[in-house]
Amino acid sequence: MALQAGTIATLHVKNRQEYGWFLEDEEEEAVLLHNSEVRDGFEPNEPVEVFLYQDHGGRMAATMDRPLITLGEYGWVEVVGEEMKLGVFVNIGISKDALVSEDDLPYKFEVRPIEGDKLYCTLKLDKNGRLFAKPATEEKIWDIAKRANKTDMNKDFTGIVYRTGKAGTWIITDDMHRAFLHPTEREDEPRVGQTVTGRIIDVHDDGSVNVSLLGRRTERQKDDAESIYDYLMIRGGKMPYWDKSLPEEIEKRFGISKGAFKRALGKLMKEGKAYQEDGWTYAGAKSESE
């Protein structure tokens, strides 16, 4: 069987050159183990286990480093670089990074992975025999996913986005639950490969879950209330917005719904930090004489 990039092979030393060792299989097909790829434990008279890949010149080469992924084997790899018209490069545990083609990335550049993000990938060969990293398919995610239980409802989670689309975002959690994030349950659309945190809001019969990246209602009210109060103080303690302002005015100014605005404003009023009068909101507590 011919030597194949992306696989691990046990080879024998054929001869030594100034720049490395030539290894060969039983068919006497040779490949170079460069001096820089030799590791502790190498014995020229014994079989050596190596990973096969293509070097920067496109030639078959060997390394004693153990890769994070191989052909048909999956693992988490980190994005280490981006090329606008090519895709992203990931560290697969050897001296040469692997390319994830832009064909395997989202169409929208805004949600493509960036340096530091992580992808669940395997290695593949294209029709010309070149080695690429390829993100896991939906079928593969289902294979590794674990069923969530009803008791997981409302629990916090951390996970990594593995797919995004018009319908929403798909995440694999640290507990290996397959999760779906609807656009209404987030503020910004996360990138593929991005680590996100949130909570489980629904558990389906098939063991998958729905999640939210929004804070719990009381947390959101606090955040909204603080933002409104900050704006109020910037305006000298008064603003031309109150609970009867138009929804589109509130959305334009604060980026939240009218319902969220009213809840946050109600919290400020309850705490004595604001009051309303004649279409305006003022900082402080309303005087009882008024």
UniProtKB/TrEMBL annotation:
Q: Which SMART domains match?
A: S1
Q: From which organism does this entry originate?
A: Domibacillus iocasae
Q: Which InterPro entries match?
A: CvfB_fam, CvfB_S1_2nd, CvfB_S1_3rd, CvfB_S1_st, CvfB_WH, NA-bd_OB-fold, S1_domain, WH-like_DNA-bd_sf
Superkingdom field: Bacteria
Concerning PANTHER family, the annotation shows:
CONSERVED VIRULENCE FACTOR B (PTHR37296)
Q: Which residues form the S1 motif domain?
A: 4-65, 152-214
Q: Which family does it belong to?
A: Belongs to the CvfB family.
One Pfam family name is CvfB_1st
GO function term, MF aspect, one = nucleic acid binding
Protein name per UniProt: S1 motif domain-containing protein
